[in-house]
Design a protein that fits this description.
about 375 residues; alpha+beta
Protein backbone atom coordinates (compact mmCIF):
# COMPACT_ATOMS: atom_id res chain seq x y z
CA UNK A 1 0.00 0.00 0.00
CA UNK A 2 1.29 3.47 -0.93
CA UNK A 3 2.53 5.70 1.89
CA UNK A 4 0.04 8.43 0.95
CA UNK A 5 -2.79 5.92 1.50
CA UNK A 6 -1.48 5.11 4.97
CA UNK A 7 -1.30 8.83 5.74
CA UNK A 8 -4.95 9.27 4.73
CA UNK A 9 -6.00 6.23 6.78
CA UNK A 10 -4.19 7.59 9.83
CA UNK A 11 -5.63 11.05 9.33
CA UNK A 12 -9.28 10.11 8.99
CA UNK A 13 -9.43 7.28 11.54
CA UNK A 14 -7.82 9.67 14.03
CA UNK A 15 -10.11 12.58 13.22
CA UNK A 16 -13.31 10.55 13.38
CA UNK A 17 -12.48 8.95 16.73
CA UNK A 18 -10.43 11.64 18.51
CA UNK A 19 -13.24 13.53 20.29
CA UNK A 20 -14.75 10.32 21.65
CA UNK A 21 -11.34 8.95 22.60
CA UNK A 22 -10.62 12.17 24.49
CA UNK A 23 -13.85 11.64 26.44
CA UNK A 24 -12.78 8.07 27.23
CA UNK A 25 -9.31 9.18 28.37
CA UNK A 26 -10.66 12.02 30.52
CA UNK A 27 -13.34 9.86 32.16
CA UNK A 28 -10.97 6.91 32.47
CA UNK A 29 -8.46 8.91 34.51
CA UNK A 30 -10.56 9.08 37.74
CA UNK A 31 -11.88 5.55 37.12
CA UNK A 32 -8.32 4.21 37.40
CA UNK A 33 -8.38 5.34 41.04
CA UNK A 34 -12.04 4.51 41.73
CA UNK A 35 -11.23 2.46 44.83
CA UNK A 36 -9.13 5.23 46.40
CA UNK A 37 -11.67 7.94 45.49
CA UNK A 38 -14.58 5.94 46.92
CA UNK A 39 -12.68 5.41 50.18
CA UNK A 40 -12.00 9.14 50.49
CA UNK A 41 -15.64 9.96 49.75
CA UNK A 42 -16.91 8.09 52.80
CA UNK A 43 -17.64 4.62 51.45
CA UNK A 44 -19.50 2.31 53.86
CA UNK A 45 -17.15 0.38 56.16
CA UNK A 46 -17.76 -2.49 58.57
CA UNK A 47 -16.94 -1.88 62.28
CA UNK A 48 -13.85 -3.44 63.80
CA UNK A 49 -14.39 -6.81 65.49
CA UNK A 50 -12.20 -9.71 66.62
CA UNK A 51 -10.86 -11.72 63.68
CA UNK A 52 -12.52 -14.85 65.06
CA UNK A 53 -16.03 -13.36 64.81
CA UNK A 54 -18.09 -15.80 62.70
CA UNK A 55 -20.22 -14.70 59.76
CA UNK A 56 -23.99 -14.69 60.01
CA UNK A 57 -26.11 -17.02 57.92
CA UNK A 58 -26.78 -15.67 54.43
CA UNK A 59 -30.47 -16.40 55.02
CA UNK A 60 -30.38 -13.96 57.94
CA UNK A 61 -28.63 -11.38 55.75
CA UNK A 62 -31.39 -11.78 53.16
CA UNK A 63 -33.98 -11.13 55.87
CA UNK A 64 -32.14 -7.94 56.88
CA UNK A 65 -32.09 -6.72 53.27
CA UNK A 66 -35.81 -7.41 52.83
CA UNK A 67 -36.57 -5.62 56.10
CA UNK A 68 -34.66 -2.57 54.79
CA UNK A 69 -36.42 -2.73 51.40
CA UNK A 70 -39.69 -4.68 51.89
CA UNK A 71 -41.04 -3.84 48.42
CA UNK A 72 -38.02 -5.31 46.63
CA UNK A 73 -36.61 -8.78 46.02
CA UNK A 74 -33.03 -9.98 46.28
CA UNK A 75 -31.33 -10.76 42.99
CA UNK A 76 -27.61 -10.96 43.80
CA UNK A 77 -25.24 -11.08 46.74
CA UNK A 78 -21.58 -10.24 46.20
CA UNK A 79 -18.39 -9.77 48.17
CA UNK A 80 -15.07 -7.98 47.71
CA UNK A 81 -12.92 -8.57 50.79
CA UNK A 82 -10.10 -6.49 49.39
CA UNK A 83 -12.19 -3.38 48.83
CA UNK A 84 -15.05 -3.92 51.32
CA UNK A 85 -13.95 -6.34 54.06
CA UNK A 86 -16.68 -8.04 56.12
CA UNK A 87 -19.46 -6.54 53.98
CA UNK A 88 -22.10 -8.40 51.99
CA UNK A 89 -23.52 -6.31 49.18
CA UNK A 90 -27.13 -7.26 48.39
CA UNK A 91 -28.47 -6.15 45.02
CA UNK A 92 -32.27 -5.80 44.91
CA UNK A 93 -34.96 -4.75 42.43
CA UNK A 94 -38.74 -4.49 42.17
CA UNK A 95 -38.89 -8.00 40.68
CA UNK A 96 -36.43 -10.75 39.89
CA UNK A 97 -36.59 -10.22 36.10
CA UNK A 98 -36.39 -6.42 36.22
CA UNK A 99 -34.05 -4.75 33.67
CA UNK A 100 -30.32 -4.95 34.56
CA UNK A 101 -30.08 -1.18 35.07
CA UNK A 102 -32.76 -1.32 37.81
CA UNK A 103 -31.01 -2.14 41.06
CA UNK A 104 -30.78 -1.06 44.66
CA UNK A 105 -27.77 -2.01 46.78
CA UNK A 106 -27.88 -2.63 50.53
CA UNK A 107 -24.57 -3.02 52.39
CA UNK A 108 -24.83 -5.47 55.32
CA UNK A 109 -22.27 -6.49 57.93
CA UNK A 110 -21.39 -10.11 57.11
CA UNK A 111 -20.94 -10.95 60.81
CA UNK A 112 -23.90 -9.26 62.50
CA UNK A 113 -26.33 -9.04 59.55
CA UNK A 114 -26.86 -5.38 60.44
CA UNK A 115 -27.56 -2.91 57.62
CA UNK A 116 -24.57 -0.56 57.31
CA UNK A 117 -25.98 1.64 54.58
CA UNK A 118 -27.51 1.80 51.15
CA UNK A 119 -24.72 3.27 48.96
CA UNK A 120 -26.57 3.95 45.74
CA UNK A 121 -25.67 7.58 45.04
CA UNK A 122 -22.12 7.49 43.66
CA UNK A 123 -22.33 11.01 42.26
CA UNK A 124 -19.26 12.03 40.28
CA UNK A 125 -17.89 8.48 39.86
CA UNK A 126 -21.22 7.19 38.56
CA UNK A 127 -21.27 9.95 35.91
CA UNK A 128 -17.69 9.13 34.88
CA UNK A 129 -18.47 5.41 34.66
CA UNK A 130 -21.58 5.85 32.53
CA UNK A 131 -19.85 8.28 30.16
CA UNK A 132 -16.90 5.93 29.83
CA UNK A 133 -19.08 2.87 29.37
CA UNK A 134 -21.80 3.97 26.96
CA UNK A 135 -22.16 7.80 26.89
CA UNK A 136 -25.54 7.31 28.62
CA UNK A 137 -26.80 5.67 25.41
CA UNK A 138 -27.11 2.07 26.60
CA UNK A 139 -26.03 -0.81 24.37
CA UNK A 140 -25.94 1.30 21.15
CA UNK A 141 -23.58 3.75 22.88
CA UNK A 142 -21.45 0.90 24.19
CA UNK A 143 -21.10 -0.66 20.73
CA UNK A 144 -20.42 2.77 19.20
CA UNK A 145 -17.51 3.29 21.60
CA UNK A 146 -16.28 -0.16 20.65
CA UNK A 147 -16.21 0.96 17.02
CA UNK A 148 -14.26 4.07 18.06
CA UNK A 149 -11.78 1.73 19.75
CA UNK A 150 -11.45 -0.20 16.49
CA UNK A 151 -10.68 3.06 14.66
CA UNK A 152 -8.04 3.76 17.34
CA UNK A 153 -6.31 0.46 16.58
CA UNK A 154 -6.34 1.25 12.86
CA UNK A 155 -4.95 4.72 13.61
CA UNK A 156 -2.18 3.16 15.71
CA UNK A 157 -1.18 0.68 12.98
CA UNK A 158 -1.21 3.34 10.26
CA UNK A 159 0.65 5.74 12.56
CA UNK A 160 3.45 3.22 13.07
CA UNK A 161 3.69 2.70 9.31
CA UNK A 162 3.85 6.46 8.68
CA UNK A 163 6.33 7.04 11.52
CA UNK A 164 9.07 4.83 10.02
CA UNK A 165 9.77 6.95 6.89
CA UNK A 166 9.26 10.12 8.94
CA UNK A 167 12.18 9.16 11.21
CA UNK A 168 14.46 8.04 8.38
CA UNK A 169 16.48 11.27 8.38
CA UNK A 170 16.19 12.09 12.10
CA UNK A 171 17.37 10.61 15.36
CA UNK A 172 14.74 8.98 17.54
CA UNK A 173 13.15 11.47 19.92
CA UNK A 174 14.11 14.54 17.92
CA UNK A 175 11.92 17.58 18.64
CA UNK A 176 12.73 20.46 16.27
CA UNK A 177 12.02 23.45 18.50
CA UNK A 178 13.73 25.91 16.18
CA UNK A 179 11.40 25.14 13.27
CA UNK A 180 8.32 26.81 14.78
CA UNK A 181 5.42 25.81 16.99
CA UNK A 182 3.69 23.63 14.40
CA UNK A 183 6.80 21.50 13.69
CA UNK A 184 7.54 21.22 17.42
CA UNK A 185 4.04 19.90 18.16
CA UNK A 186 4.24 17.54 15.19
CA UNK A 187 7.47 16.05 16.56
CA UNK A 188 6.00 15.80 20.07
CA UNK A 189 2.84 14.18 18.71
CA UNK A 190 4.89 11.58 16.82
CA UNK A 191 7.27 10.94 19.72
CA UNK A 192 4.62 10.54 22.41
CA UNK A 193 2.49 8.45 20.07
CA UNK A 194 5.26 5.95 19.30
CA UNK A 195 6.34 5.77 22.96
CA UNK A 196 2.82 4.86 24.11
CA UNK A 197 1.93 2.66 21.13
CA UNK A 198 2.02 -0.61 23.13
CA UNK A 199 -0.10 0.80 25.97
CA UNK A 200 -2.60 2.38 23.59
CA UNK A 201 -2.91 -0.94 21.75
CA UNK A 202 -3.56 -2.86 24.99
CA UNK A 203 -6.08 -0.33 26.31
CA UNK A 204 -7.78 -0.03 22.92
CA UNK A 205 -8.06 -3.80 22.42
CA UNK A 206 -9.32 -4.48 25.95
CA UNK A 207 -11.75 -1.58 25.63
CA UNK A 208 -13.22 -3.13 22.49
CA UNK A 209 -13.63 -6.48 24.27
CA UNK A 210 -15.30 -4.77 27.24
CA UNK A 211 -17.90 -3.12 25.02
CA UNK A 212 -18.97 -6.58 23.90
CA UNK A 213 -19.75 -7.82 27.43
CA UNK A 214 -23.58 -7.88 26.99
CA UNK A 215 -23.14 -9.95 23.83
CA UNK A 216 -20.54 -12.26 25.37
CA UNK A 217 -22.68 -12.92 28.45
CA UNK A 218 -25.78 -13.46 26.32
CA UNK A 219 -23.90 -16.09 24.29
CA UNK A 220 -22.77 -17.79 27.53
CA UNK A 221 -26.35 -17.81 28.86
CA UNK A 222 -27.70 -19.41 25.69
CA UNK A 223 -24.79 -21.82 25.38
CA UNK A 224 -23.08 -23.16 28.52
CA UNK A 225 -25.63 -22.08 31.11
CA UNK A 226 -28.54 -23.44 29.05
CA UNK A 227 -26.75 -26.78 28.77
CA UNK A 228 -26.04 -26.91 32.51
CA UNK A 229 -29.70 -26.41 33.47
CA UNK A 230 -31.13 -28.57 30.66
CA UNK A 231 -32.32 -31.37 33.03
CA UNK A 232 -34.58 -28.82 34.76
CA UNK A 233 -36.21 -27.56 31.56
CA UNK A 234 -39.62 -29.08 32.35
CA UNK A 235 -39.39 -28.98 36.15
CA UNK A 236 -42.42 -27.51 37.97
CA UNK A 237 -42.12 -23.99 39.45
CA UNK A 238 -40.66 -23.72 42.94
CA UNK A 239 -42.74 -22.49 45.87
CA UNK A 240 -39.80 -20.58 47.35
CA UNK A 241 -36.07 -20.04 46.83
CA UNK A 242 -34.94 -22.48 49.52
CA UNK A 243 -31.79 -21.64 51.49
CA UNK A 244 -29.06 -19.43 50.01
CA UNK A 245 -26.83 -20.46 52.95
CA UNK A 246 -27.12 -24.10 51.89
CA UNK A 247 -26.18 -23.12 48.34
CA UNK A 248 -23.17 -21.18 49.68
CA UNK A 249 -21.95 -24.17 51.71
CA UNK A 250 -22.31 -26.53 48.74
CA UNK A 251 -20.40 -24.14 46.46
CA UNK A 252 -17.49 -23.76 48.90
CA UNK A 253 -17.26 -27.55 49.33
CA UNK A 254 -17.31 -28.03 45.55
CA UNK A 255 -14.39 -25.65 45.01
CA UNK A 256 -12.53 -25.54 48.36
CA UNK A 257 -9.53 -23.71 46.89
CA UNK A 258 -11.75 -20.85 45.72
CA UNK A 259 -14.01 -18.27 47.36
CA UNK A 260 -17.49 -17.08 46.47
CA UNK A 261 -17.49 -13.77 44.59
CA UNK A 262 -21.18 -13.55 43.70
CA UNK A 263 -24.38 -15.52 44.11
CA UNK A 264 -27.15 -15.12 41.54
CA UNK A 265 -30.63 -15.92 42.83
CA UNK A 266 -33.12 -18.16 40.98
CA UNK A 267 -34.77 -16.49 37.99
CA UNK A 268 -32.06 -13.85 37.43
CA UNK A 269 -30.04 -13.44 34.24
CA UNK A 270 -27.28 -15.76 35.53
CA UNK A 271 -29.41 -18.51 37.02
CA UNK A 272 -32.47 -20.43 35.89
CA UNK A 273 -35.65 -20.45 38.09
CA UNK A 274 -34.50 -23.59 39.95
CA UNK A 275 -30.91 -22.78 40.90
CA UNK A 276 -28.57 -20.53 42.76
CA UNK A 277 -25.44 -19.84 40.73
CA UNK A 278 -22.34 -19.19 42.83
CA UNK A 279 -19.48 -17.61 40.91
CA UNK A 280 -16.20 -18.70 42.48
CA UNK A 281 -12.88 -16.86 42.19
CA UNK A 282 -9.28 -17.98 42.73
CA UNK A 283 -6.79 -16.53 45.17
CA UNK A 284 -4.15 -15.06 42.84
CA UNK A 285 -4.32 -11.73 40.95
CA UNK A 286 -5.11 -13.61 37.72
CA UNK A 287 -7.39 -16.41 38.95
CA UNK A 288 -9.36 -13.91 41.06
CA UNK A 289 -10.67 -12.57 37.73
CA UNK A 290 -11.50 -15.95 36.19
CA UNK A 291 -14.85 -16.89 37.72
CA UNK A 292 -16.18 -20.45 37.80
CA UNK A 293 -19.96 -21.04 37.97
CA UNK A 294 -21.33 -23.57 40.46
CA UNK A 295 -25.04 -24.39 40.04
CA UNK A 296 -26.83 -25.50 43.20
CA UNK A 297 -30.39 -26.83 43.31
CA UNK A 298 -32.30 -24.19 45.28
CA UNK A 299 -34.73 -26.65 46.88
CA UNK A 300 -32.31 -29.40 47.91
CA UNK A 301 -29.05 -27.45 48.25
CA UNK A 302 -27.21 -30.14 46.22
CA UNK A 303 -24.74 -29.60 43.40
CA UNK A 304 -26.17 -29.69 39.89
CA UNK A 305 -23.14 -28.79 37.76
CA UNK A 306 -19.92 -26.79 37.63
CA UNK A 307 -17.68 -26.06 34.64
CA UNK A 308 -14.81 -23.88 33.51
CA UNK A 309 -15.96 -20.76 31.72
CA UNK A 310 -15.47 -20.85 27.91
CA UNK A 311 -12.55 -18.95 26.38
CA UNK A 312 -14.61 -15.99 25.23
CA UNK A 313 -15.88 -15.29 28.75
CA UNK A 314 -12.37 -15.68 30.18
CA UNK A 315 -11.11 -13.13 27.64
CA UNK A 316 -13.72 -10.67 28.87
CA UNK A 317 -12.85 -11.27 32.54
CA UNK A 318 -9.13 -10.73 31.90
CA UNK A 319 -9.60 -7.62 29.76
CA UNK A 320 -11.72 -5.72 32.30
CA UNK A 321 -9.07 -5.19 35.01
CA UNK A 322 -6.26 -4.89 32.46
CA UNK A 323 -8.11 -1.99 30.84
CA UNK A 324 -7.89 0.04 34.08
CA UNK A 325 -4.56 -1.29 35.38
CA UNK A 326 -6.13 -3.17 38.30
CA UNK A 327 -3.61 -6.03 38.37
CA UNK A 328 -0.66 -4.38 40.10
CA UNK A 329 -2.11 -2.21 42.86
CA UNK A 330 -1.43 1.51 43.25
CA UNK A 331 2.00 1.59 41.48
CA UNK A 332 0.53 0.19 38.25
CA UNK A 333 -2.45 2.54 38.55
CA UNK A 334 -0.06 5.51 38.70
CA UNK A 335 1.73 4.26 35.58
CA UNK A 336 -1.64 3.81 33.85
CA UNK A 337 -2.65 7.35 34.82
CA UNK A 338 0.60 8.86 33.47
CA UNK A 339 0.18 6.99 30.19
CA UNK A 340 -3.45 8.16 30.06
CA UNK A 341 -2.30 11.79 30.41
CA UNK A 342 0.25 11.28 27.62
CA UNK A 343 -2.53 9.82 25.46
CA UNK A 344 -4.62 12.95 26.09
CA UNK A 345 -1.66 15.08 24.92
CA UNK A 346 -1.28 12.91 21.79
CA UNK A 347 -4.98 13.22 20.95
CA UNK A 348 -5.09 16.94 21.72
CA UNK A 349 -1.98 17.68 19.68
CA UNK A 350 -3.43 15.73 16.76
CA UNK A 351 -6.54 17.94 16.80
CA UNK A 352 -4.33 21.06 17.10
CA UNK A 353 -2.16 20.04 14.13
CA UNK A 354 -5.18 19.25 11.95
CA UNK A 355 -6.86 22.53 12.90
CA UNK A 356 -3.72 24.53 12.18
CA UNK A 357 -3.35 22.87 8.77
CA UNK A 358 -7.04 23.36 7.99
CA UNK A 359 -6.87 27.07 8.83
CA UNK A 360 -3.80 27.50 6.64
CA UNK A 361 -5.64 25.79 3.80
CA UNK A 362 -8.66 28.07 4.25
CA UNK A 363 -6.42 31.13 4.27
CA UNK A 364 -4.73 29.98 1.07
CA UNK A 365 -8.10 29.47 -0.62
CA UNK A 366 -9.22 32.92 0.51
CA UNK A 367 -6.07 34.56 -0.93
CA UNK A 368 -6.51 32.66 -4.18
CA UNK A 369 -10.17 33.69 -4.45
CA UNK A 370 -9.26 37.34 -3.81
CA UNK A 371 -6.57 37.23 -6.49
CA UNK A 372 -9.01 35.72 -8.99
CA UNK A 373 -11.55 38.42 -8.19
CA UNK A 374 -9.02 41.17 -8.84
CA UNK A 375 -7.99 39.63 -12.14
CA UNK A 376 -11.60 39.45 -13.23
Amino acid sequence: MHLRTWVLIHKWTSLVSTIFLLVLCLTGLPLIFHEEIEQLSGEVEAPSMPASTPNASLDTIVESALAAQPKKVVRYMFWDEGEHPHITMVSMASKVDAPPDEFWTVAIDSRTAQVLGQPNDRGFMEVMLQLHKDLYAGLPGQLFLGFMGLLLLIAIISGVVVYKPFMRKQDFGTVRRQKGRGIKWLDLHNLLGIVTVAWLTVVGATGIINTLDPIVLAVWQSDQLADMVKPYKNAPPMKDNGSVQAAFVTATKTAPDMTVRLIAFPGTAFADPHHYTAFMKGNTPLTARLLRPVLVDAQTGTLTDTREMPWYVKSLFISQPLHFGDYGGLPLKIVWALLDIIAIIVLGSGVYLWGKKYLRHREALAVLAEAETREA
